[in-house]
Design a protein that fits this description.
about 300 residues; mainly beta; 5-stranded antiparallel β-sheet; 4 helices
Amino acid sequence: MIIAGMSSNPAESPLHGVLPLPDWGVIRARGADARSFLQGQLTQDVTQLAAGTARLAGYCTAKGRLLASFVVWAADADTLLLACSADLLPATLKRLRMYVLRAKCTLEDVSAEWPAWGLAGAAAGDGAAWAVQAHGGGVRVALPPALVDGVPVARALQFGGETPAGPALAAATWLGLEAASGVPRIVAATVEQFVPQMVNLELVGGVNFQKGCYPGQEVVARSQYRGTLKRRGQLLVGTAPLQPGQEIVHSEDPGQPAGLVALAGELPGVGPVALAELKLAALEGGSLHLGTADGPRLTPAALPYAMPAAVD
């Protein structure tokens, strides 16, 4: 990917800036049993989550399909905050509450108390991925960088506190960087569409295979260890706008979808980009298209992390 008109000054880059993120929301889990309750619900080990560190986590159905994905961090020993897509927060919160039963844990939507901002480029700073720092009365979570033209672009989320300083960043650019980072986020259009490995959640630290049981654990473990994984997350560059939930079709098998768009945005000088779930076989020849076999062409691009070898 080549960004047209890139300046030698990072602060003048079109990939540098700040924007509010109303498409993010925050759930607060609080109580003596908050960690143990979530430990039995999420793909991540939250019992060992230390102050100053965030982690990715998935929330699955019994069939191993992702209902939501979270960025999780600890406010204190008995309080965890879970940031997720705002469009699926109400349904996710309702479902989690169903399983609290007698656990000493209250779950609340605290999005109004923890408004989210996205920071990119020089505005994001240089913190190590998943580091959590107090900032302006809120907290800032450093994210894994996006890879653009072989160069990492820093990203961060800020929740609460003062509005971060920096030039305005286009929403489509932020979403493009999110896709180019290869870090999946489940949104309403993709609920129950993916087992975690289909969107590389375990490759970016969102699945702990040593922890105890959670809904869908058997399916997730079987996909990991028994050679059943035939789909993966792939970065794609397009020629027309992309949206989560859109189908991808392979030229040599137009009768059925080859994949599904998980995240999508647009990068200056590049155009539309997407992180998509895709059949591994679809990368071996032919061409990829959006929606139909004669739809806009999609071209695979490099992710910022290594992919495991395909399983026969």
